[in-house]
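Supplementary Note 3. Input sequence used for the single-chain structure prediction.
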Amino acid sequence: MIRYCTQCGQPVEPRIPPGDHLPRSVCTACGHVHYENPRLILGCIAEWEGRILLCRRAIEPRLGYWTLPAGFMENEETTLQAALRETREEACANVHSGSLFALVDVPHINQVHLFYRGQLQDGRHSAGQESLETSLFDEADIPWNSLAFRSVRFCLERYFSDRRQGHFGVHQFVLPPLPG
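The predicted structure, written as discrete structure tokens, is reproduced below.
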């Protein structure tokens, strides 16, 4: 929870505002209610000649692990725009947009991950500021034990399964917390 009001700078405290059912950060001085909502993570399963583009992370969390190009959605952009922007930023790659492929709810960390399918426009890619390197992988060569996030594994497993079956669906999944 936040500690100070964004409107007047005074301390906030957790309260259930009238007409609500959840505790919110409420300003002790001006009464402003601060809502904290899940964050949207947008990414892209970018394919080139049957191979999938992955980035090796140059930042925490999961520094050095592989992931699909993805990141937080910005204000004033669509989900597709966010997925394409993140692909450009992290992999210096341009993608012909495809369709929504997966929605992964991650409620234990207040996130929703959305992944689009797409085709690299020209096959070019390179590491952006948040990547150590980028590479195209065949299914057999995916570094499954070095993937950064479970949502990425979920997407890749479904993607290759759909591709083998010759049709792509939209997948939805709730990612439970890790045990322990």
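The first helix runs from residue 79 to 91. The chain is about 15% helix and 35% strand.
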